[in-house]
Amino acid sequence: MRVIASSAGNFLRKHVYVAFILPALLIYVVFLVYPLLSSLYYGFFQWDGITRGAFMGLANFKKLLAESPYNVRFFSALKHNIHFFLMTMAVQNLVGLAFALILSRGIRGASVYQTIFFMPYTMSVIVLGFLWSLILNPTWGVFNKLLATVGLSGLARPWLGDMATALPAITLVNAWHWVGFPMLVFLAGLEAIPAELHEAARLDGAGGWKLFRRITMPLLMPSITIVTILTFIGNFNAFEIIFAMEGSSGGPYYATDVLGTLFYRTAFGEAGGFSGQDIGLGSAIAAVMFVIIFAISYLGTRFMRSREMQY
Amino acid sequence: MDGKMRGFLTSPTVLLVLLALVTLSVLSVLPGPPVLSGLPVGRALAAEKVELTFWSWRTEDTVAYDKFIKAFEAKHPEITVKFMPYKNTEYNTILSAALQGGSGPDIVQLRSYGGFEPYAEAGYLVPLDEKVPALKDFPAIPLSGARDRKDGKVYGVPFAVQSLQIFYNKGIFSKFGLKEPRTWDEFLDVCKTLKSKGVIPLAQGTKDGWTLESMTGAVAPNFYGGTQFFNEVVKGKADFRDPRFVAGLKKLKELEPFFPPGYLGISYTDAQMMFVQEMAAMFIGGSYEVGYFNRQNPALKLGVFPAPPQKKGEPALVSVYPDGSFGISAQTKHLKEALLFINFLAAREFGQMFTDELKQISPIPGVTPVPGVMTEIVGLTKSSTPYIMLVGFRYGQPTGSVLLQNALQGMFAGKLTSEGVADEIHAGLVKWYQPFHK
Q1: Strands B384-386, B302-305: pairing kind
Q2: Which CATH architecture has domain B50-161+322-378?
Q3: CA–CA distance from B175 to each of A76, B194, B278 (Å)?
Q4: Contact in structure between B236 and B438 (CB atoms under 8 Å)
């Protein structure tokens, strides 16, 4: 009798964690997994009114990937996501790394700078999207006025209305917004690198660049992996910043249209009521987005993990 | 995270177990009935008094609607009407969900054309043709916005008509001795004069694509031949690659030199602001601007003229479209009372109150418009034509509006010719617009 009781107690003690995980798991399933799977499922239906129509197999996916003009919009949006990601990696994450490297040297007032660089991160996307739209406004915006005061009025542009500059401008605003995050992750990563490794390398005669390339970079790989994957996921899910600065049509002439805005427009219609709703096709877009993000994040993580070093 | 923990989380067994859990829970949820259920709003409280609920997207007009409702309740003391507005951009979603769940209102504000048809076709609305006698006297365009194209029945009482024309600043015009232009060339001359005097002629920008559609609606009909072209294109006898439509787009492009500097980045609100602050002399836009312009700058002397035709004596066409209508939900438990109210919304007395309170054009026959610019606008609508994309081509994806708006941005950015715009519109519409398949 005692044996049974104690083994039951053992069992409970060993598996009690399940009880703690369950509530979170339940919430996760109800609010994330179920909507995700149901939207994958809706992608197989005709659904352009307010009620779900007939099952139509892969027709929505075929339309999206192989039928003009739907596929033109899809691939143009995908291309913009890729540009957005690459530019963000080049600007936001490199600047974040630079900030982290500088701050990790223990310069005077490091924590003050850290706070300042992190500040934009705490702002709402809608608010800062609106503010930057005002700053970049061609008529009353501060930015073009500033260019004029330093004698560069020839460079003034309608930044958000010019097809060539709209997406880069938004990418920079986005980088300005999030730069604090990679900075903090890299900073934490740098602080975890044992000082003796650098010391030993220096004694062996390694200089600044070699030190960074051979010691810092490899040991920072886990942080780089995390930042890259999170940037990828964030950029491929991008919607708010573009919606706030260019509206749901991803204008001008689709120059800032990404998968997020394409999905929103297709599934829910444009905010002004200029287009109807096609939840079937919208769900197909969401499903393809999910597959792309999941596959690349998974493969990317595996690849980058393989290049990490343990010490 | 250390290596061991990572290994645990990504191990195939754990992933499989998670997936199984998830699938199970989804399967158990999927076939369930809709969760939303009807809320009996105050019905039990007063047995003799019937309460109608009235949903709308006009949150900003609540005070005016309360007035209209008081006028109705004074005549029908046995009925109370509860006005419940929802946020404009969320209204469609809320209404769809409520109707599907059986908890919708009795009276529904409906959008025009493709905006209400899905509700009618799903059987959520009561056809009104025989039940509202006043509908017989309504003008054709507003009524067409509430008529289902498949069964030909009318599902709503139209409440407002909008029209597209050119507003101008009378002060600036008289300062430079300018008159309302009667021909296209006179119009371009006015623009040139203003520009030479350092005034921005047109407050138009291209950042918000939809304002380009309004501009097309104001300017292009004179050149594509108004209603005749509209009818041909709707029936599929012509399409948007027609030289007449391309000519209309070319005229639009002729206005580009008179837009503000940096117009590619000028949004709708920037344009409004430039006109209201008297930085720009003209604004091409909808009749719904009048109230806003008056409120923002009461000193601004507002004038209006229709976009001029090529030659003197040709009709100056104005695009018009119905904003929406009021309908009755098929789920109502008080059809008799709802019909009393909907007939009230179709009567001249309501039309007059609506016009006076909200400074809008009422489609109800016999209503006198508000004196001033609104009366002039109503005068302009005597020679009108349907607002082409909204009236004819918002029933499928991609809509004519979306195609036109974005392609015009491409035209003003120098990426597309007017022929290219026309091709792009056609290529999108031909995907779903059956008459183009002939």
Answers
A1: unpaired
A2: 3-Layer(aba) Sandwich (3.40)
A3: 49, 10, 13
A4: yes
Angle between helices B62-75 and B348-358 (to 10 degrees): 160
Where are the domains positioned within chain B?
50-161+322-378, 163-320+384-437
CB atoms under 10 Å from CB of A4, counted, come to 8
pLDDT of residue B40: 44
SS (H, E, C) B203-248: CCCCCCHHHHHHHHHHHCHHHHCHHHHHHHHHHCCCCCCCHHHHHH
Set of chain B residues whose Cβ sits within 8 Å of the Cβ of A156: 262
Confidence of residue A13 (pLDDT cuts 50, 70, 90): confident
- Residue A49 sits at the chain B interface (C-beta within 8 Å): yes
Quick: pLDDT tens for B29-44. 443 333 334 444 444 4
What's the pLDDT at A2?
57
Q: What is the mean pLDDT of residues B12-25?
A: 50
Looking at residue B407, what is its pLDDT?
Answer: 95
- A138 and B265 within 8 Å at the Cβ level: the answer is yes
Q: Range of A56's domain?
A: 44-306
Closest chain B residue to the Cα of A32, Cα to Cα: B22
CATH fit for domain B163-320+384-437, picks 1.10.260.40, 3.50.30.10, 3.40.190.10, 3.20.20.70: 3.40.190.10
Q: How far is CA B109 from CA A156, B54, B97, in A?
A: 46, 8, 15
Instruction: Report the first-to-last Cα separation within chain B, whole angstroms.
Output: 64
pLDDT at B309: 95
Instruction: List B residues 201-260 in contact with A (Cβ-Cβ < 8 A).
Output: 205-210, 213, 260
Helix (H) or strand (E) holding A288: helix A279-306
Domains B50-161+322-378 and B163-320+384-437 share a fold: yes
Q: Residue A69's closest chain B neighbor by CA?
A: B428
Residue A14 lies in a domain: no
Q: Is the ipTM of this complex over 0.90?
A: no
Query: Does position B47 have pLDDT exceeding 80, yes or no?
Result: no
Mutate which of A274, A290, A298 to test chain B, going by most B C-beta atoms within 10 A? A274
**Range scoring the smallest mean pLDDT among A288-297, B15-24, B278-287:** B15-24
Measured distance CA(A185)–CA(A190) in Å, rounded: 9
| Among candidates A38, A159, A247 on the partner chain, residue whose Cβ is nearest the Cβ of B265 | A159
**Token code pair at residue B78:** 């046995």
Dihedral, CA of residue B127, residue B128, residue B131 and residue B135, to nearest 10: -160
pLDDT in tens, A77-91: 999 999 999 999 999
